[in-house]
Amino acid sequence: GDVSHHSPSEVLRSFKELRSLRIELPAGELGMDDGVLLKWKADFGSTLGSCVILGAASASASPSSAAKDGATAAPPPATADCAESDDSGSIPESFYTNGGLKLRVLWTISSLIAASARHYLLQPIISDHALLESLDLTDADGQGVLTMDKWQLQELRVRPVSASGDSHRTLMPALSMRLWYAPHIELPGGTVLNGATLVAIKPSEEAMMDAVGNATAGSAGGSWVSDAFEEPYRTAVGVLLKRRMYSLEMNSF
Asked: What percent of the chain has pLDDT over 90?
């Protein structure tokens, strides 16, 4: 028979006093190659507040955990994504020449586009529900999470969203990014992330203010970075934050 399709705002219109809402999409927006790990968490007001992205070229069982199961695990090939970095935590030269950095930038842009499209989708829901104080938009794949708290929801109600051209997504401001890389990270439970990368993103204006305020703090990241994901990925973030940090800038798009 016919199946009626309704937007989330249409489905929720009859609910008059929503205060907390969690919506789960049937799947993540980003089609990734088998074995590639990509997770993101973003918060928004009328525009992006912050975004944390954790990616890895592959995720596999460690040799020790595979041996316990009676299986054998070959070490990962020495590619740009898992070439050994030096003791200082510096990214190997091959990361730049063999496409490793280009791939990470692609992951970052794709995650930001997915997050901004979700944010744009939420506008009618937020305008229809003035009492809403907490809003999460997740997906069944566990790929991305968009969050908005009471004050961010209020900001969106009083400050219109700027769309990105003719696309159905929120315009991204100029962004300041911090990147950390590790060739291998073994997670609790025995999974190994190869070519692991962490990217922490804030609007450039806000990042500059944070830098001035934290000039004597000596901290590269805050709890919004370290607490972005649940275990075992929180462990990976903690390991990456101890490595050398790289800075990048991105124009509004």
From this structure: 51
